[in-house]
Amino acid sequence: MYDALSTLTPATLDRATLWLGRGGLRPTRQRQTLAALLIGDGGHRHVTAESLFAATREAGEKVSLATVYNTLKAFCDAGLLHEVSVDGARSYFDTRMDDHPHFFWEDSAELTDAPSEGLQITGLPRAPEGTEVSRVDVVIRIRRKS
């Protein structure tokens, strides 16, 4: 993922606190830690709850896996992350908030940003009565040629 130990600095924790504030979330210690690991260096990430949990352990922080799941959900609900489901059992959390497609690398189970030039989405079905389309996720499953 990245070097978790060098991510938890005063500067990255400050950036995390500001990010949490944009979502209207109280900056608890655990939220600050998880936010710093996600966005502390300003880079974009695609993480699973398990990979973020591993990063907290690597950084020497004590956060339960259940707390990581609950916090990621809170970050999504606050509009700070997008959840991208690649199948019924696996979700990734994306720090990049603009609309963009993804590649899902089947051989490594990695999610990466895909280029959006040339992508056209046309002919969406009409949303059911009383609803509206909130967003469209495009996940392109790829694998290396044998």
From TrEMBL:
InterPro entries: FUR, WH-like_DNA-bd_sf, WH_DNA-bd_sf. One of its GO terms (cellular component) is cytoplasm. GO terms for biological process: negative regulation of DNA-templated transcription; regulation of secondary metabolite biosynthetic process. It is found in: Cytoplasm. This is Ferric uptake regulation protein. Gene3D superfamilies: Winged helix-like DNA-binding domain superfamily/Winged helix DNA-binding domain (1.10.10.10). The keyword Cell inner membrane does not apply. It comes from the Bacteria. Keywords: Cytoplasm, DNA-binding, Iron, Metal-binding, Repressor, Transcription, Transcription regulation, Zinc. Belongs to the Fur family. Homodimer. Pfam families: FUR. One of its GO terms (molecular function) is zinc ion binding. PANTHER family: FERRIC UPTAKE REGULATION PROTEIN (PTHR33202:SF7), ZINC UPTAKE REGULATION PROTEIN (PTHR33202).
